[in-house]
Amino acid sequence: MSSFASSIRPKLPELPESIFTTMSVMAKEYGAINLSQGFPNFDPDQKLLELAAKAMRDGYNQYAPLSGIYSLREVISEKILSLYSRRYHPDTEITITAGATQAIYTAVAAFVWPGDEVIVLKPAYDCYEPAIIAQGGIPVLVQMDPHDHRVNWALFKKAISERTRMVIINTPHNPSGVTFSTEDMRTLEQSLKNTNILVLSDEVYEHIVFGNGRHESASRFEDLASRSLICASFGKTFHVTGWKMGYCAAPDYLMKEFRRIHEFNVFCANHPLQRALASYLKNPDHYLDLGPFFEEKRDLFLSGLQGSRFKFKASQGTYFQLLDFSELTDEGDVAFAKRLTVEKGIASIPISVFNKDQQDHQYLRFCFAKTEDTLLRATEILGKI
Ligand code: PMP
Ligand code: GLN
Question: Does this model's pTM top 0.85?
Answer without folding.
Answer: yes
